[in-house]
Amino acid sequence: MDKWSEILLGLVLIVIAVLVSAYSGDWVAWGLSFNFGSAAWTFLKGGLVWLVIMVGLLFLMLGISDLKD
């Protein structure tokens, strides 16, 4: 991947994950009504957000390290 596309993809993933976690307090509004139980569903949503943030940080760090080359 190109260094600039890695930086852009990393920033986009981080921003999207933060915005989704901030503005979607209730996923039923999006039509995603699952019957998992509130604690388990909250845990899964939080884990998904952190996974996307970590992948975004990975792409961001890869792009920044490629800037040195």
Description of the structure:
This protein is mostly helical and 69 residues long. The protein has one domain. 74% of the residues lie in helices and 0% in strands. It has 2 helices and no strands.
Shape: elongated
Distance between the termini: 14 Å
Radius of gyration: 15 Å
What percentage of amino acids are in beta strands? under 5%
Tally of contiguous helical segments: 2
Order of helices and strands: HH
Structural class: mainly alpha
Residue runs with pLDDT of under 50 for 5 or more positions: none
> How many domains would you count in the coordinates?
1
Extended strand count = 0
Task: Chart the SSEs and their pairings.
Elements: H1 3-23, H2 38-67
Helix pairs in contact: 1-2
Quick rundown:
Helix content is 74%, strand content 0%. The chain is an all-alpha fold and 69 residues long. The protein has one domain.
